Amino acid sequence: MKVLVTGGAGYIGSVTAKALEQAGHVPVILDSLLSGPQVFVRDRIFYEGDIADRALLRRIAEEHPDLDATIHMAARIVVPESVQLPYEYYRDNVAKSLELFDELTGLGLPRVLFSSSASLYATKEDFEVTEEDPLDPTSPYARTKRMMEVILEDMAAATDLRAIILRYFNPIGSDPDLESGIYAKEPSHVLGQLVMAARGQKDSFTITGVDHPTRDGTGIRDYIHVWDVAQAHVRAIEAFDDVLAEVRAPSTVINIGTGQGVTVRELVASFEKVTGSEVPLAEAPPRPGDAVGAFANVDKSARLLDWRSRLTLEDAIASALAWGEKRQEILGYE
After folding, report:
1. Among 90, 141, 168, 223, the one annotated catalytic
2. Is 121 a known active-site residue?
């Protein structure tokens, strides 16, 4: 199969492109390079441009008439930044995606696999969430993801467009060959911050939020190796039509996680176990837009995709640390 991957120069996009290749498929990358580095594209088919550029989308379709599906990953993703820059987030994530979906439908490319987020879920007492549980997105970023889900659901009901929506939990780790990984100079996510603290690039790791209603007061997440996330995309693309036939609907939502909840303090403990050394810690209030968290019920992904995560939290931490040693060679900065 040939698959258009928007945001394919990004962290998850580049790893997913590799997983597609290893499964015998051909990724076609569309990326504005607003944040993702071009070096992650490697020698793949690549178009630099905007997802809302209809003329470019038509050219891609003309040059690749055998495109089977689109994986839509292109988005702004930093929660605190979304609080500061709501216009940019709604414009780039929602308005531009609407143009993309409409153009793909008109081009006869109706299969869309969409990257959504577990940050949509409302807090539950036991923190385990199914796809049917209540939603309460707490940041502009999360609300853009929910809006895109609704757009896809409505368009799928009214047009030929078909959508599988994957709600990622918390991807961590790197490409198994250490060819791509987290690229931000100072990553905002928890594991990137831990790696920086462990490498002496920060004085300490700051736990943001210590009074949450969890077993140790820190936020709870479902940390999943990015390579497992990439494999889930491969399965969803390969089984796309069968999945929608099984659910008897033009669109569906599937959680992508491990099914295990891990608090920030537990993540730190696992990190210290892998590294064999202590990480200096500090505490601070939650960041703007931060959620208490959740972990995935993964029964639906097992049933529809025949997929479950295989790699451990320790595997993901080890690969993130290895990428931390390698990334200066690839990106030119630590």
Report:
1. 141
2. no
Which of 1.10.10.10, 3.30.300.30, 3.40.50.720, 3.40.1190.20 would CATH assign to domain 2-172+223-256? 3.40.50.720
Q: Which helix (H) or strand (E) holds 48?
A: strand 45-48
**What is the enclosing helix (H) or strand (E) of 271?**
helix 264-275
- Structural domain boundaries of the chain? 2-172+223-256
Please give the structure tokens belonging to residue 231.
């494999």
Q: Read off the tokens for 31.
A: 């990326």
Tens of each residue's pLDDT in the chain, 334 residues: 999 999 999 999 999 999 999 999 999 999 999 999 999 999 999 999 999 999 999 999 999 999 999 999 999 998 889 999 999 999 999 999 999 999 999 999 999 999 999 999 998 999 999 999 999 999 999 999 999 999 999 999 999 999 999 999 999 999 999 999 999 887 777 888 898 888 888 899 999 999 999 999 999 999 999 999 999 999 999 999 999 999 999 999 999 999 999 999 999 999 999 999 999 999 999 988 777 889 999 999 999 999 999 999 999 999 999 998 898 899 987 6
Gap between the Cα atoms of 217 and 200, Å rounded = 26
8 A C-beta contact, residue 219 and residue 263: yes
Whose tokens are 């479902």? That residue is 222
- Count of residues for the chain? 334
